[in-house]
Design brief:
The chain has about 675 residues and is mainly beta. Among the domains are: about 430-580; about 585-675, Jelly Rolls, CATH 2.60.120. The protein contains seven helices and 49 strands. β2 and β3 (about 15-20) form a beta hairpin.
Length: about 675
């Protein structure tokens, strides 16, 4: 250590002799404190400003605030972070002015284990694109990577290729396009996985703003492929300048590399946490993932876009997931909450969990001859996604739906959808659903459609079970009068505690377009409407409509109530044969024999006319279910008998009653008495 021995005439003494103060410089001190590391030497990195600590980008000679330095900055970054030979560690971009911009002109592919703090700086990527950029991002990483606290500006001119101009790229799939800087990616063969069994992932993107003008080449702000796991994105803001396709787009990958793609195992994005994702001015959805599972999106805001989020299976259909990594979780756990969409031009929230056989055959699973070489059945084509959507709001247009799904299980709660063609639509492949505390306003068609027959897989359709609870549906049918809820292909649906239609006392507006509160189709069974309130219907429409006049199909209305305007206008409660309307006495059967069919006729059959011959009430087993009860009531006399099926014969000139219960196979007499 140097020693100062005379304050007025400083002399510095070292073991080897005196040293002039002029030779003590930041560089010389820095060389002593931060000598070139073995990793820096191995990578061939030149230390330009040795007084800066390891990882400080100024140490390596990067130049801020100079567009002319883009090529040199890029060459340095490629050397420092080379995918194969780069240096792992933490790096910082010093913000020397408080608004520094670092310029680059080519794609940077990162080594494993690089963690970057932008310190509030901006990375500017300016390039005339080439086809070789396909599938890559300006910042492209695979494993153990973070990028935080700064901005990325993309000035990209498209000339050729697809999936070009991405701001951030993560992972990969298959052999890259010719000339690409990306490595070949088959997840199970990635160097880190081969060496230590660690899949791609462990990535953090935080406190980033991305603005891009990369149109024409299917660019995304963030583009991801493959089985990336443990990914955290937090406080991300994207402006796609109305040309970028998505704020984020991710797809499945190839885990193995069999020559025939339809035999490959697939890898899937999983265990992602997305928090506070703000996206505007994109062509498609703000956030899209195909073939992902275990995803939580908490806080997403999308404006001026086709949709807010879209999740699907991708072509892989989770058919042959990577045996070591993806078998247990596949198909499960998509959770979106605290989501807002404004000026949405297509489907607000899309969740696709099924495809048709024709759709599968058109994909890689169909093989080169598109003839289903794997022998997939309908069971492989449905129930491929489950999701929960909660605490959401979106304003849309007449072009499409607020929420659209053919997922196997759908949970939708605590949201508001306004101005879409239809608020919520489930198809026949969505067989388990729940809507709770959802508001649907001013749809141009139906408010809610259950069991839409679009791209059906099973024929006849599998019947669904579901629940709609505490919802408010009003103003449907703004383009042409339509119902609040339309139901098809259901075997059990309970609609409870819902409000239908606008009214002045509650909404300061009058219902003018929404017709029936609930309209049940011919293939729907077990629809129970309980404790609902119908404020009004448009044009004198009935409140509850049940198609087909032959049977109730166990559909019923309980504890219903109505608005004062509806009552004053003489509103009609029901059309069709609802189960609750059958718990009553029938019209007089007259002087004739007849047949009782359960759930199609009143369960008390009246014979009030004097008989002129022996008559019979035949008890049919059609529609009958265990526990059904029927009663015969004879008040008309006459010197002839009245048979209650084969169970009991009421004697001539006798006023009497008899009761029977269905035990699952036959009607059994349970009571008899005279009047």
């Amino acid at each position: 250590m140097a020693l100062q021995i005379a304050p007025t005439t400083p002399v510095f003494v070292q073991p080897t002799g005196p040293v002039s103060p002029a030779t003590v410089t930041p560089a010389s001190i820095g060389t002593l404190i931060f000598p070139p590391s073995a990793a820096e030497n191995a990578a061939g990195v030149t230390i330009v400003n040795g007084w800066y600590p390891y990882g400080n980008m100024l140490r390596y000679g990067i130049v801020p605030n100079n567009a002319g330095a883009a090529a040199a900055n890029t060459a340095l970054a490629k050397l420092l972070w080379n995918f194969t030979t780069g240096i792992s560690g933490s790096y910082a971009f010093p913000n020397t002015t408080g608004a520094d911009i670092y310029y680059f002109n080519d794609i940077l592919v990162f080594h494993n284990g690089v963690y970057i703090d932008l310190c509030g700086c901006t990375l500017n990527f300016t390039k005339v694109g080439v086809a070789a950029d396909g599938g890559a991002g300006f910042i492209h990483a695979f494993s153990n990577f973070s990028l935080i606290s700064g901005s990325i500006v993309i000035n990209y001119i498209y000339t050729a290729g697809s999936n070009t101009g991405n701001a951030i790229g993560l992972g990969g799939r298959d052999v890259p396009v010719a000339g690409s800087p990306l490595p070949t990616v088959f997840d199970s063969l990635m160097p880190l996985y081969v060496a230590s069994g660690v899949p791609m992932g462990n990535i953090v993107l935080r406190n980033l703003t991305i603005s891009s003008n990369a149109g024409g080449g299917q660019a995304r702000a963030i583009f991801a492929l493959g089985g990336l796991t443990n990914v955290l994105m937090e406080n991300i803001t994207v402006d796609g300048q109305s040309v970028v396709l998505n704020g984020l787009y991710a797809e499945f990958g190839w885990a193995t590399n069999e020559a025939s793609t339809y035999l490959r195992q697939t890898s899937h994005p999983n265990n992602w946490q997305i928090k506070n994702f703000n996206c505007k001015n994109v062509v498609n959805e703000g956030y899209t993932m195909n073939g992902a599972y275990g995803i939580t999106v908490d806080g997403i805001r999308v404006y001026n876009a086709s949709g807010v989020v879209a999740f699907g299976t991708g072509e892989a259909l989770f058919y042959r997931p990577w045996s070591n990594e993806d078998g247990a979780g596949a198909k499960r756990n998509i959770h979106v909450k605290n989501a807002v969409g404004g000026n949405i031009s297509n489907i607000g929230f899309a969740f696709s969990g099924a495809t048709t056989l024709a759709g599968m055959n058109a994909s890689y699973l169909g093989g080169p001859s598109h003839n289903n070489p794997n022998g997939l059945t309908n069971a492989n084509l449905v129930d491929l996604l489950e999701f929960t959507l909660e605490n959401f709001s979106a304003i849309g247009t007449a072009n499409n739906y607020g929420v659209s799904t053919n997922a196997g299980r759908a949970t939708i709660r605590g949201g508001t959808l306004t101005g879409f063609q239809r608020g919520v639509v489930t198809t026949q492949e969505c067989t388990n659903y729940e809507m709770d505390q959802v508001e649907v306003f001013d749809s141009t068609s139906f408010g809610v459609q259950i069991g839409s027959a679009v791209n059906t897989v099973y024929s006849p359709a599998r019947q669904s079970v579901g629940r709609i609870n505490g919802c408010f549906i009003a103003g449907s049918g703004t383009a042409a009068t339509a119902a609040g809820v339309v139901v098809s292909a259901s075997t059990s649906l309970k609609i409870t505690g819902c409000r239908f239609g606008y009214e002045q006392i509650h909404d300061l507006k009058t219902e003018t377009t929404q017709a029936q509160a609930v309209n049940v189709g011919t293939d729907a069974f077990g629809v129970v409407c309980d404790d609902n309130y119908v404020a009004a219907t448009s044009g004198g429409a009935v409140a509850y409509a049940l198609a087909s006049a032959s049977t109730s199909r166990l559909c019923s209305i309980l504890n219903d109530s109505y608005g004062a305007v509806w009552l004053a206008g003489g509103g009609v409660r029901t059309s069709g044969i609802w189960e609750n309307t059958l718990y009553t006495i029938s019209a007089d059967n007259g002087d004739t024999s007849s047949t009782y069919i359960a759930h199609a006729q009143p369960n008390v059959q009246l014979f009030a006319t004097t008989l002129t011959a022996n008559r019979t009430l035949v008890l049919s087993t059609t529609n009958a279910v265990q526990g059904d009860i029927v009663r015969i009531l004879r008040t008309g006399l006459g010197a002839f008998t009245l048979a209650f099926g084969a169970l009991k014969t009421i004697p001539a000139s006798t006023a009497a009653w008899a009761t029977a219960e269905y035990n699952g196979t036959a009607w059994v007499l349970t009571g008899y008495g005279t009047l």
